[in-house]
Amino acid sequence: MQLRYQFRVYPTPGQQIALARAFGCARVVFNDGLRLRRQAREAGEEYICDGELSRRLITEAKLTPERAWLGEVSAVVLQQALADLNTAYRNFFASISGKRKGRKVAPPRFRSRKDNRQAIRFTKNSRFKVLDNGCLRLPKIGDLPVRWSRALPSEPSSVTIIKDAAGRYFVSFVVTTTGEPLPELDSEVGIDLGLTHFAVLSDGMKVTAPKFLRRAARKLKRLQQALSRKQRGSNNRKKAVTEVAKAHAKVADTRRDWQHKLSTTIIRENQAVYVEDLCVAGLGRTRLAKSVHDAGWASFTAMLEYKAVRYGRTFARVDRFFPSTRMCSACGRIAAKMALDVRSWDCPCGVVHDRDVNAAKNVLAVGQAESRNDRGAQIRPGLVPAQRVEAVTHPDAARSTRSVEGISVL
User: Fold this and answer.
1) In 197-234, which residue ranges form alpha helices assigned H by DSSP?
2) Taking a C-beta distance cutoff of 8 angstroms, is the pair 173, 5 a contact?
3) At 172, which helix (H) or strand (E)?
């Protein structure tokens, strides 16, 4: 399986300039390719193939005075920018034709130079190298000092340099590794996700929701107010934007670290894990949207899914329309719909149910049944889809799901 290992890097001022140049050239090539294909479509011409696009926008463009500065960066960076464009188009065409399941994918959009988040990718063709002194050597950029927190399990196939909105630089390696099966256990668990309790397990354990965004709301409000008072286009406004981005990055990093630790504990202590397939996108449009996004259910279940594959565990999602809350885990009777403020209820069979614990028990029961009968449960998938956090296209644009590149493993 493919995993992505991410580390912090600290480029020198000169290297920051070289990286900014590479970010800009990749953005220009991406936009030129998108513009050329749009013009061909409007003129009724044939779709420009990938090879023709590379010849026009990279090979021939370097010979013109308007694009001669493209030669100042590695050609691999430019080729990978076009590869991102091609992937976005393929995902868009697959979406509108029905071959790609899930939500519809929008066509690719132009990249903005005002986007505070940038990324470029180097493949093996660029001959990047991890040196013995711990630095990462990149063509036409130099040796980047890397803050190593662990060793790479194998030779990386590609490396992505990321600059986030907070002005931090990261390097992300894609490595191919075999699974690390853990000793088999007899315990299995069903998980009911919620807002008051982030996760309620079928064994009765309740994990209180940390609510990282809510806890940082006062500081974020103060920084947003300070930002709104700054004059547009001024240096003080740029500094205020960075401060807001740093505060949000701290919230996201804290949440991610907490979810990694919890998901690792659950996977290590259980042979099989079953969760309900929640419609997070739909819940994000309700009055509970802020709390739903603060919880981060989608990222947590994605961690459980790929860690189950990595450590030889079983993972499955239960149908979102299954009435786990209203069904009695003792007799199977389905009660009438109940409001969210009803935290416990009595079944006519005489059992008093805790709403969340009962739901977790039902998730476990139906997950085990589907696992034994093989009725479509997602058991040990060979390819785990994950969000691609390095993408620098518009958030609504297409995203690749060909590997688990978007995951930072624990």
Assistant:
1) 212-215, 217-228
2) yes
3) strand 169-176
3 state SS of 6: strand
Task: Please give the mean pLDDT across all residues of the chain.
Answer: 88
- In this structure, what are the phi and psi dihedrals at residue 71, rounded to the nearest 5 degrees? -75, -5
Please give the model's pTM, rounded to 2 decimal places: 0.84
Q: For 275, how many CA atoms within 13 A lie in the half-sphere containing its CB?
A: 23
Could you tell me how many residues make up the chain?
410
**Mean pLDDT computed over 72-81:** 96
Q: Does 105 have pLDDT greater than 50?
A: yes
Residues 161 and 119: beta-carbon distance below 8 Å? yes
Contacts of 61 (CB under 8 A, 6+ apart): 32, 67, 70
Using left for φ > 0, alpha for ψ between -120 and 50, and beta otherwise, residue 254 falls in alpha
The secondary element (H helix, E strand) that includes residue 53 is helix 50-54
State the catalytic residues. 192, 276, 356
The Cβ of residue 335 has, within 10 Å, a number of other Cβ atoms equal to 16
Beta bridge partners of 162: 119, 170
Helices (H), 143-234: 212-215, 217-228
pLDDT at residue 399 in the model: 39
Quick one: average pLDDT of 56-79? 95
What does the pLDDT look like over 264-280, one tens digit per residue?
999 999 999 999 888 88
List the structure tokens of 346: 């009595």
Nearest in space to 75 (alpha carbons), one of 38, 119, 25? 25
Q: Taking a C-beta distance cutoff of 8 angstroms, is the pair 156, 173 a contact? A: yes
Per-residue pLDDT tens digits for 158-194: 999 999 999 999 999 999 988 889 999 999 999 999 9
